[in-house]
Amino acid sequence: MNGMNRPDNGIMDEEPTIYIKLEEGYDGFEGWGTSLAWWGHIIGRWSNQEKLAEVLDLVFDPVKGLGFNIVRYNIGGGENPSIQPNTLRPGGDVPGFQPELGQWNWNADEGQRNVMLEAMKRGVDIAEAFSNSPPYWMTISGSVTGAEDGGNNLREDRYEDFADYLTEVVKHYKEEYGVMFRTLNPLNEPASNWWKKGNIQEGAHFSLDKQKKIIQLTARSLQRKGLFETTVSAPDENSVDETLDMLHGYDEETYNSISQINTHSYNGEQLEELRLLAKDKGKKLWMSEYGTGGTQPHDHEDLSCVMELAERVIADLRLLRPSAWVYWQAVEDESAQNNWGFIHSDFKRGDSEYEITKQYYAMAQFSKFIRPGSRILWTNDAHSVAAYDSAKRQLAVVIHNGEGQRQICCDLGVLTTDQPTARLYRTSERENLAEEVVPLHSNKFTLTLEAQSVTTVVIDHISYK
User: Fold this and answer.
1) Do 24 and 379 contact (CB within 8 A), yes or no?
2) 6 falls in which pLDDT band (50, 70, 90)?
3) What is the C-alpha radius of gyration for the chain, rounded to an integer number of angstroms?
4) What DSSP character marks residue 336?
5) Structural contact between residues 388 and 377, judged by C-beta atoms closer than 8 angstroms
6) Angle 233-238-244 (CA atoms, 0-180°, nearest 5)?
7) Element at 375 (helix H, strand E)
8) Which residue ranges run through the membrane (predicted)?
9) Strand order in the sheet with 384-389
10) Which residues pair with 386 in a beta bridge?
């Protein structure tokens, strides 16, 4: 137990108190997810089916793993085969389905497809399709890696073709596999100018006017093909502020063409402003991509990425209040020698071996206990977030502590329980989702928070005063 929790001997007034208010928060939380680019392309082709199943359980199974219920499927563009050597990073060479106009290869992208279908067997119930780049033959540069100068790379005479390409993939997955993509995003960080030819990943810049054009064409193409269950999301900018800037430039027709606003939260400060804009426009809001590698050299036990992840999740749930929170790649390339991702496997070798990182357990502190359908609750502490699951009558409180060891008190407010104890889970330098029992006293509990830790307290049989 490490002497972490005090005996049930009352609450000291001088301890900082976290107050939970049921009436302040938001409903409609749909869950947690991951993009399948680029790890699905690699992992999904493993010959060792047992190892593949283990990784998929670790990510998607709600009991054995993180319980992610959302996937973002990358519709690859497919690089120009004449470009040698291929500059795309391991896994980044996602195959396209249309090698040239009029030709289709529906056997392409076996790996990512396998992962998506197996994920759905494990409880994934929401799927979004997205594009990083048009097929190479639609581009100005002749490459899916971007334009020569980082500018617009979709040829003027190919906008209709690109919209048709994306929606045809959506139609194929519906008819062939029964996969209903709820949303389709033709963009990925489109305002960014780092998508230049020779890049190590697919990417395409779209200026504001070009964003509006492809969004509208994609929406029309979906309707024309009778794909009414799929709507358009946009714009998936790198930062919250960039997303807000682009949205301010969208006209009424463009807004009418989308049902959901997607943003990445790598950067930006205007979280509340974006939330209010989405509410004003009547659009669902997703945090559709974030990932972190921390600040330290390659180390599976790195704590800096744990702290960054926990801080980001809490800030997003408190201020942005998205319906869904989606990590970039659940599985990252060990050969890249960085600390991104929850599971590492060598993409170059593709040998079915993997290792779990400390960041995996930090993510579990949230995703295993704040489940889809929960009401995200307000607290007075910027380093904490709470969630109430009315179906389970269960309350989860997650606290991030990047400081030294400190004591806190938590007051449940109008939420009460007849249980004498709660369950505590903690990830710290020495622990990975370690479990303890916490005594409850007068509708409160006290904790000593470890330095550089993420702590989750789960309380059952919750009712109202």
Assistant:
1) no
2) very low
3) 23
4) G
5) yes
6) 65
7) strand 375-379
8) none
9) 434-439, 421-427, 453-459, 394-401, 384-389, 375-379, 17-26, 406-411, 444-449
10) 377, 397
Q: Which of 343, 401, 397, 336 is nearest to 369 (CA)?
A: 397
Q: Which two tokens stand for residue 397?
A: 């409180």
Distances (CA, A) of 119 to 54, 127, 311, 353: 12, 10, 27, 19
Residues in contact with 379: Cβ distance below 8 Å, sequence separation at least 6, in sequence order: 18, 19, 20, 21, 385, 386, 397
- Residue 391 identity (one-letter amino acid): A
Pick from 281, 217, 204: which is nearest to 244 by CA?
281
Maximal CA-CA distance, the chain:
75
CA distance linking residue 400 with residue 317, whole number of Å: 13
The predicted pLDDT at position 464 comes to 86
Q: What kind and span of H or E run contains 215?
A: helix 208-224
The residue with tokens 């009991």 is 63
DSSP secondary structure code for residue 92 in this structure: T
Distances in Å between the Cα of 437 and the Cα atoms of 7, 217, 398, 434 are 11, 56, 15, 11
Q: Which residue has the tokens 């599985």?
A: 331
Domains of the chain by start residue, with CATH = 17-24+378-464 (2.60.40.1180), 30-370 (3.20.20.80)
Of the candidates 28, 66, 69, 125, which has an alpha carbon nearest to the alpha carbon of residue 369? 66
Give 68-123 pLDDT, tens digit per residue: 999 999 999 999 999 999 999 999 999 999 999 999 999 999 999 999 999 999 99
Question: Measured between alpha carbons, how far is 131 from 94 in angstroms, rounded to an integer?
Answer: 11
Q: Say if CB 375 and CB 27 are below 8 A apart.
A: yes
Q: Does residue 461 contact residue 413 with C-beta atoms inside 8 Å? A: no
Distances (CA, A) of 15 to 141, 377, 388, 420, 424: 61, 22, 24, 21, 19
- Dist CA 303 CA 320 (whole Å): 25
Contact 117, 73 (CB under 8 A): no
Q: How confident is the model at residue 213 (pLDDT cuts 50, 70, 90)?
A: very high
Res. 142: pLDDT tops 90 = yes
Whether residue 59 contacts residue 34, with contact meaning beta carbons closer than 8 Å, is answered with yes
Q: What is the mean pLDDT of the chain?
A: 95
pTM of the entire predicted model: 0.95
Q: How far is CA 454 from the centre of its chain?
A: 19
Q: What is the mean pLDDT of residues 454-464?
A: 96
Report phi then psi at 376, rounded to 5: -80, 125
